[in-house]
# Entry
Amino acid sequence: MADMTTVRAYAKNVDLPPRKVSLVASLVRGRSVADALVILQHTPKRSALSVQKAIESAQANAVNNHGLDGKTLQITTLSVTTGTRIKRFKPASRGRALPFQKKSSNILVEVSGDLKPKKAPVAKKKTPVAEVAEEEKK
# Structure
């Protein structure tokens, strides 16, 4: 078995309450990335799209930036924490204003997988022009 490397991706200030996002996150926690994406595509919750984007970002980071094999990726950590809260007021009867807070979430995804096997370097083929140039040098 090759090296196991862990790669992170954050989705910060997602405009959904962390309680609702964590319900969807618990569906895919600990699964392979491919399985998780299929599950999230068929989950009829609004927060499924945000979790799916975070997992796809972690997958892209792992494959493109760290050279991991996309087929071996597993979700090792999927945590949802509270983000910033925006304070707002709702009009009420008799000229009052009732306060409420718009909650947001931070989603942390860590995936781990095997490194891609290194390919052997390919020998460059000489073009006919390069061969003629070498012969002239001699």
In short: The mean pLDDT is 91. The chain has one domain: 4-137.
